[in-house]
Amino acid sequence: MRTLTGGQAAVEALAAAGIEVVFGIVGVHNMHIYDALYDHPFMRQVTVRNEQGAAFMADGYARASGRVGVVLPITGPGGTNAATGVAQAYADSSPVLVIQSNVASDLLERDVGTLHEMKDQVAFFSTITQRSQRVSKVEAIPETIRGAIETLQAGRPRPIHVEILADVLAATGTFDAPPPAPARRRSPPPTGRPWTRPQPCCAGRSAR
Asked: For residues 125 and 131, what is the distance between their CA atoms, to the nearest angstrom?
């Protein structure tokens, strides 16, 4: 049994599922995830200037590698920035996992002008993902992330959105060591018939 913050639990769950690289931007509400990434022995983080770039990078990584691409946008506008790339991944059936922070539980959906507050992130992302869900208890983080990745590795791999509240990322909980899971890679799509140069419309026809 180990005592971890919610951010550490999220990173450990990703690592246990074979994730080796994530794409995103550090912010006030997801700081505990990035603290855990900083201390992790092998997880690589790619930071960007805009979350749209992070989403497209995760999508491209998923297409090229066959692995799950992970996006870590900040709360509110960070998620809407990422939405363009996530929507493209949805349209093209790419295995992309979005793990997004939100304001603390006591400020959620109160419309009081909290930094980066958004009316309903889960509902917003439900329109461009196969599933969008909120984690409101620190103990639920590992199983939620593990379940999302398992879903992305089977069937039609459209994106999944997981929202974790800021105070849940900061909270501590006691966890069993996650069982190691081998990294699974999706097979590349079939390439179809080999390309051949089209013939001119009159090829093979005798001149009159």
From this structure: 8
